[in-house]
Each structure stands twice: as C-alpha cells, then as structure tokens.
Design brief:
By secondary structure, this protein is of the alpha+beta class. The chain has one domain. It has 1 helix and 4 strands. A 4-stranded antiparallel β-sheet has the order 1-2-3-4, with no helix packed on it.
Length: about 70
C-alpha cells in the first residue's frame, strides 16, 4: 500500500496531509521520505517508506495462489 494521504498529528491530534499530495512519478520506493504538515499546529512529520510498504503496493494486483 502507498503511504497514507493523511495522518493524525502526534503533537496536537490535528489532521496532517501529505506534501506534495501526488505520488512520485516513478512510484514509492523503500527509503523515500514522505512529508506531512499539520493543518492545526503546522508541525512537519517525515516518515520513511519501508520494504513492507513497497511489497504491499507491488503485490496489490496479484491473485492469491491456490
């Protein structure tokens, strides 16, 4: 799965949106930084995309094996 469009701010409980909102042109890769800014307190949060995020996104269209 791709990084969330919004998260909850740890400091104030407000709504943080991803900046920029659009995904990178070549997709998400492990090690990419995702930036969020809180609409209430203006704090910035930087989260790193890990291998699980990339694996979930790549396998989303795969059919389950029998």
């Amino acid at each position: 799965m791709a990084p969330a469009d919004t998260i909850v701010c740890v400091d104030c409980g407000g709504r943080c949106t991803r900046v920029p909102f659009d995904a990178p042109e070549l997709g998400w890769h492990a090690g990419d930084l995702v930036t969020y800014r809180c609409a209430d307190c203006a704090d910035m949060w930087y989260l790193e995309v890990d291998e699980e995020d990339v694996a979930d996104e790549a396998g989303a269209g795969d059919l389950p094996s029998a």
